[in-house]
Description:
Blueprint: E1 5-6, E2 12-16, H1 36-45, H2 62-70, E3 76-82, H3 95-98, E4 103-107, E5 119-125, H4 136-139, E6 140-146, H5 149-166, H6 173-197, H7 215-219, H8 222-245, H9 256-276, H10 280-291, H11 297-321, H12 325-333, H13 343-356, H14 363-386
Antiparallel strand pairs: 1-2, 2-6, 3-4, 3-5, 5-6
Helix pairs in contact: 1-2, 5-6, 8-11, 9-11
Amino acid sequence: xxxxxxxxxxxxxxxxxxxxxxxxxxxxxxxxxxxxxxxxxxxxxxxxxxxxxxxxxxxxxxxxxxxxxxxxxxxxxxxxxxxxxxxxxxxxxxxxxxxxxxxxxxxxxxxxxxxxxxxxxxxxxxxxxxxxxxxxxxxxxxxxxxxxxxxxxxxxxxxxxxxxxxxxxxxxxxxxxxxxxxxxxxxxxxxxxxxxxxxxxxxxxxxxxxxxxxxxxxxxxxxxxxxxxxxxxxxxxxxxxxxxxxxxxxxxxxxxxxxxxxxxxxxxxxxxxxxxxxxxxxxxxxxxxxxxxxxxxxxxxxxxxxxxxxxxxxxxxxxxxxxxxxxxxxxxxxxxxxxxxxxxxxxxxxxxxxxxxxxxxxxxxxxxxxxxxxxxxxxxxxxxxxx
Length: 387
């Protein structure tokens, strides 16, 4: 029986279907109609179905599961709890809204984008092989997908597929080398895109077992050095993009709160990137390339100082701008008649930032902040005139 496995991202679990199905370890086709209820009941094991609603699993869910188990197609099955629609402004507070339970949906169709779910149980099977109680552990697998679909994919790739594919020692050496380079490129792209959706920057560090070995011995492998050089080139390009692209304040029309949020995000992102540059696995990659005297390594190492400088500046800017958080929130919520007494304290804080901030006290940033405050005030009065 295959146990549960969880990727480092914490977004996904994969387990053999044998651990989810408790009925009919023996028998033939006469038992097939009874097995679907066990598949749907797997939702209980994965905490998809609240114990307070045992009646959610009903006869109506069997049809899709029988279709999944019996036919050649479709080779997938989805089960999820769909939340009730959010109450409208006119119906909020009604007693009926508080007792509507979630609805269990079991379908072979991919859930539409409008579905309201937090976790989804996805079954997949080998469409070329019939499902039998004795072979179900190999032909059917279950995966929990969270609303963070990209994170779920990254988790299963890192925790299941990438290690399994890299362990294919029976493949010819040339195919293994080409495949290793391809999977590293794919994982780098998937890692970056997943974390970009979360507002952070993440460098993908390949894992090929060289981390614990002698760097000089690893540097003798020409193919490994070439793959690591490709990774470092990608790191260098990505870090430069982050430094250049994120060094621009938001549009002035968005107001001062957007400026505060921007520097907080940038401070967190650059600090996280700085910490990644001291990660043991990344440093192991650097040591191998140092032993190989790679020509691509100096450009990457030079960026460490830039990342440190940008992280320090962003964190310092966020610290000083945090003093504007409460007064600017009050300004954003104020009516036109209340604006005048709110401005002097805000301008006093801006002057304090100009006099004391080590990185934000530049004409470009300070004047930009004042223009954002002016835009916020103008917006308030424009709304009054529009009314």
